[in-house]
Design goal:
By secondary structure, the protein is mainly α. It has a domain at about 1-120. It has helices at about 1-20, 25-30, 55-65, 70-85, 120-185, 190-215, 225-235, 250-270, 270-280, 280-290, 300-325, 330-340, 345-380; strands spanning about 95-100, 115. Strands 1-2 form a two-stranded antiparallel sheet. Helix 5 packs across helix 7 (about 225-235) and helix 5 (about 120-185) packs parallel to helix 13 (about 345-380).
Length: about 375
């Protein structure tokens, strides 16, 4: 809620005033105008900022191709991007979040103000403030995910036998129906493939349950020491955030994407040891994976700092949305209820157990009916 208030008061309102949108009607008229996101949301250039086409011929070619698309909506979007480029749109025109104050060279404070045409030193401070905010959000997401995983682990442990039995019978019912259909249409040899499919999918399903059990094994909420370790780690890890630096080098971009995925996966699993290993010596980690080497230093010029700042802010918004989604999930709500009253978990397990047992009984009835039909046709049911 505080973030939304800050966004409205310190970002959207000044932007509206700067554009002369001083009445509700003017604001409505302005928002009715055609508009598309600065960051491309699909296709081979997904995630790129459209005005990077001024220095990337491939991206410019793709925008021109989009503008000539036979699909009217796609074409309209492409033409809009090209018009913005023709009018001289650049990174300096993008309204972004500035997580600091720029007055008097003092320390950057948490808050939200409008993106300004700042000098290089000011941008360095903005980047540092954005990195600090990004580290806080990564830590917050990790802590909240640990809470969710704790609830999921408890529910999974209590209900796994019933869920697994239900899924096995579902597979059995589906393949028995397929067996009958193929038997009647194509004969016994064709029907035999249903038996193979049933055995294969049953094995895969059991393996998925084993994998989930392994992933959730030992899940618990982070203690103070682990939270403190993660906080220090994310301060180091966010300095590796440089998606803008490798866009012209496919091999290094692939390495960066793999490294980012490894970090995110480790965060989601709560693997603090792996995060520490990456933060301590990312070069060694990448070499062990057989990846290309990348430099995390980044450019120090105004243009490079602006670009990094834009990407940092974009990532910050992504994490804010991820946190909002997580906190709006049923599992998170259940965690809150369980914190207030631990017996809630037992009640949920009991209710789900009853539902599962009812579903299993109905599935067994159908499976037995299909088995009897198969026996009438061929003498015995193969599975």
């Amino acid at each position: 809620m505080e973030t939304v208030i800050d966004l409205l008061q310190n970002v959207l309102r000044p932007l509206a005033e700067r554009r002369g949108l001083k009445t509700w009607q003017r604001l409505c008229d302005y928002t009715d105008q055609e508009w598309y996101a600065s960051r491309i949301s699909f296709g081979k250039f997904k995630g790129r900022l459209f005005f990077e086409a001024t220095t990337d011929p491939d991206l410019m070619g793709w925008l021109k191709w989009l503008a000539e698309s036979s699909n009217e909506r796609s074409s309209r979007m492409g033409r809009w991007y090209l018009r913005q480029l023709e009018s001289g749109a650049s990174i300096g025109d993008v309204a972004m979040l500035d997580l600091g104050t720029l007055e008097g060279g003092g320390a950057v404070q948490a808050g939200l103000v409008i993106f300004q045409q700042a000098e290089t030193e000011q941008y360095r401070r903005l980047v540092e403030a954005a990195r600090a905010r990004l580290a806080d959000l990564e830590l917050e997401l990790g802590v909240e995910k640990a809470k969710i995983d704790t609830i999921r682990a408890r529910l999974f442990t209590a209900l796994r036998p019933l869920y697994q039995e239900r899924d096995r019978i579902r597979i059995q019912v589906r393949y028995r129906r397929e067996y009958i259909d193929r038997l009647l249409a194509e004969g016994e040899e064709a029907a035999a493939s249903a038996t193979e499919g049933f055995e294969r999918e049953t094995t895969e399903n059991d393996a998925e349950y084993d994998s989930t059990a392994s992933a959730l094994s030992g899940k618990r909420e982070l203690n103070e020491e682990e939270t403190s370790r993660l906080k220090d780690l994310w301060k180091k890890l966010v300095r590796m955030f440089h998606p803008d630096q490798y866009e012209q080098d496919p091999e290094k971009r692939l390495t960066y994407e793999r490294l980012t995925q490894a970090i995110n996966d480790a965060r989601d699993r709560g693997d603090i040891e792996l995060l520490e290993s990456i933060a301590k010596d990312p070069d060694t980690f990448m070499r062990r994976q057989g990846w290309a080497s990348v430099d995390f230093g980044g450019g120090d010029g105004l243009r490079e700092l602006r670009s990094l700042y834009v990407h940092l802010q974009s990532r910050i918004f992504e994490l804010i949305e991820a946190l909002d989604d997580l906190r709006g999930s049923p599992d998170y709500e259940l965690h809150g209820l369980a914190e207030a009253d631990p017996s809630v978990i037992d009640e949920v397990v009991g209710a789900q157990r009853e539902e599962l047992m009812t579903e299993i009984r109905n599935l067994r009835f159908e499976a037995d009916r299909l088995s009897s039909e198969i026996e009438e046709l061929v003498g015995e049911s193969p599975f």
